[in-house]
Amino acid sequence: MRVLAIDLGQRRIGLAKSDLMRVIAQPLCILIRPKRDELLMAEIKKICEQEEVSDIVIGLPFHMNGDESKGTEQARAFKSALESALNMPVHLWDERLSTVAATRLMTALETPTEQRKGKVDQLAAVMILDGYLRYLESQNKNHSSDT
Predict the structure, then answer these.
(1) Does this model's pTM top 0.90?
(2) Helix pair angle (70-86, 37-51), 10° resolution
(3) Domains of the chain, with CATH numbers?
């Protein structure tokens, strides 16, 4: 089963998915955030069913000094609501600099400004997912070396 990553923005939501082996993170889509989170959760549930998702990871925005922000509180609340609505594990992942790194990459690739808006959110979700998948891989290696 796949892992779905969510870069939760105020206007746009970037989504990325893993492959079935949970090794490769790839962009999935961008959702325009509806006024009501219930509608967003319904859309995410539909995507999870279509893409065979068993786990979700949401980017958790901290300030650079590690302090929590308004976005951190919103991500935690969304996580709780999503867990209840989907009845599947939802994890939080430190997303510091993911949007900055995504923007820099888009600039380096000379992506036209008008194409960057949504793609930055999607690429940030890929970066969140990649970090989470690497963490899972390191945990699997640690557990296999214990035996």
Answers:
(1) no
(2) 60
(3) 2-146 (3.30.420.140)
